[in-house]
Amino acid sequence: MKSVVYTEPGPSSVLSVVEREIPQPGPGEVRVRLVRSGVNPTDWRFRVRPLAYAEVVPGQDGAGYVDALGPGVEGFAVGDRVWLMLAQHQRAYGTAAQYTVQPSTRVAHLPEGASFDLGAALGVPAMTAHRALTVGDPGPDRLGPGTMDGLTVLVQGGAGAVGNAAVQLARWSGATVVATVSSPEKAALASAAGAHHVVNYREGDTEAAIRAVAPEGIDLVVEVAPAQNNAVDLAVLKVGGTVSIYAKHGGEEFVVPIFETYFKNLRYQYLVLYFLRDEAIARGSADVTAAVAAGALRVGEEAGVPLHHFPLAETGAAHDAVERGAIGKVLIDVSDQ
């Protein structure tokens, strides 16, 4: 099989396409023949760090067909369409290859009618968004129609991959969604994703603009840039609100004023997808799959997620596109369907 590998840290030029033996699934494992692999910022960030393995195949996300089952696997059959999550977390071999072997807990059924493009775009963005939306109080620990009724969610950076998924999942679950963006072009993407209100933070008073569309305040903030946005978050959150932080854009540190924060009874919840407990991963994958089946999670320009395709041989260029900040989702075409 063809695999993209690297054996030393560095720029995208360390990636090369090689031939490797098709791996065999062990107990509890599923082998997947990949059609698409998704690229995330973590892929290039991991690539420049010291290696934990002698050889690495990048890629956390992907979609394809079940090709073989290891002993003890239940709930899957050869030929099933599936999507993958956390494929290269604490493992040497991810999804930038024609085949990958994964624990069955990192494999989920891809509903009929959903494209492999969508399947490969779920993983990191949708699972991170799910966790960000389910840590509030009040708020649900599962997403679905009605679970967020009566809540107002602010998605900071609503045109990003996680932000877009958060907008789509929150709207599906019944929340009123406000998204912030930095340009008219990104405003169009956030609106396409389903945001009820979009605020360009580079135009005018952001706090006033959010208050104008959410006069009773915000229940939950999905936050990508806490150092940049904390003052606004504090100003617009309701008493008992939550700031759910999944990234550190806009600065490495921020100051939390104690008096204002505790008198509002606020919660700051940090999250890293890679270290969630197994039960949180299971809840997230089940809810994301249900959202896909309901048509609530979508990709493509019409959903605010432009797609950028690269062949397997140009995985390095795909990594570079993500590192340069490509808007939408970068996908690797591993094979035809």
Automatic annotation (TrEMBL):
Gene3D superfamilies: Medium-chain alcohol dehydrogenases, catalytic domain, NAD(P)-binding Rossmann-like Domain. It holds the Pfam family ADH_zinc_N. Keywords: NADP. It comes from the Bacteria. Residues 10-332 form the Enoyl reductase (ER) domain. This is NADPH:quinone reductase.
